[in-house]
Amino acid sequence: MKNWSEKTLKRIWKGILVAVLLLIVFTFSPWVLVKGKIDPILFSMPYHLWVSILSTILLVVFTGIGGMVFYHLKLKTDPNANL
Amino acid sequence: MTQYLLLIGVLYVGVLFFLSLRSRKEIKTSSDFMLGGAKIGLILGFMTFAATLFSTFTLMGMPDFSRNNGVGAWIFLAFSDAVMVFFILWFGFYLRKRVGSESFGGMSRLLQNCYQNKGVGYLYFIAVFLFLVPYVAIQIRGVAIFLIEAFPDFIPVWAWSVFIVVVMLLYSELGGLKAIIYADFMQGTLLLIVVWLVAMNCLDNVGGWSALFEQTANTQPDLLSPPGPKGLLSPQFLIASCIAIAMIPVTQPQLSTRLVIMKDYAALRRMAVAVGFFAILIIIPTVIIGLYGALQYADASTSSFLGSVLLREQHPAIAAVTIIGLLAAAMSTSDSQLFAMGNEFRGLIGSKGENNLTPIRIAIFVFAAAALLFSLVSSNELVLLARLSFSGTGIMGPMIILGILAKKPQGSFMIGLSAVALVIFIVSQLGWIPQQIFNMRLDLLLMILLSLGALINYYVKK
Q1: Does residue A83 form part of some domain?
Q2: Taking the model in full, what pTM does it have?
């Protein structure tokens, strides 16, 4: 990642932001917040629980990747930053 | 259980005071006392952030919240925490950049510098004081009602509350923030172990993971999807809660301070990921305990349910660890908040507080006393009180973000707007005006208006 260009890092960072935003919108949408829907069940968990756990794990994974990208992006673009 | 409790309790208090005394040797200035030397690595940073974030509210409040409202409790806290850790990547960077290499004198002073306006520091301090008091109070209240269950007819609830506050003040006063951070490491680990031990016992009693959901589906199917049997977890409630929780590192000084004192940004971003996974690990068992409670103790009171699940059903050794774990969880959050308030006060009094700890210690004592009083009159709805704290301080979020992001002072428009919004929020909580306007929750509406106000302010002043 150290050798990636500023343009590439910016593009990936924006991609991550869009993905996170879509994930948040999806989690608060009627597809997830649906009353009375229990099926499909996964690992014995009702639909709402496993979908929201999956969303949470994805978001934390995005945080890990996003943190690396943002760090390298700021190394290139913001020399005065307190990194 | 008493023998186990004495043994573990003496060990715990001994380690606590050993850490305090060890940290005390390193204290030379008020900055050492309040900011712990300001160079915290990944492991300590992660544990202190997690222990400060997860408290009695998590170990006692969340199982009870899940018992009453079902699996939607996951989005309420775990997903919102995940949004918060992502937000830390971005906000933590700009906050650290803004603070730069100067000594951090608290958010109040930082905001005064950003806006070049004294009033903004006082507004922030008032908001934080008003809404951190209930948050500290629920830690004290939670543990006190639990101890009453553990030792009925021993001493009254107020005496337990006073005892908790005295221990908390003593050890944090001795060793400063560094002592708190070391203790947080121990307390965070203890919290995680305790909550999983209890959850495993619940699963064992109910017949396993699958049986837990099957029995819930047969008896209380409403618990398996939002908004839950009481209809509380509506989309608006969950979205407003998510915004308020994501704002915690921005608006609550005990967590902002931890972002600033991290050694570098690399440690901070790794800490954010670690906190995210810790949240998942610690909230899963609270949902298990909650659903188990719905099956076994559907009609029991909060204290009776918690007393049964956390104490009476456990092996005496585990029950003793649970009591100490709860005490530890409450203290790790409360002392961080007390300290953060002390640091804010230090920032506001400026150079007079640089090398004199007496006014800061008095401020911490006053804040602890206010929380103690509130704990004696507050309700047992721990999660809803915590949410009130998050929403109340959240009102300051857009103003803080604007001040930190902008390269030049942003005038007084957002300060005035935030002050008005704070008054409206307080008045609505007192029941003088409705908490819903045009079918929209007032806290959500205020956050939307304040965010728009901050955006407009930014582009006008650009």
Answers
A1: no
A2: 0.89
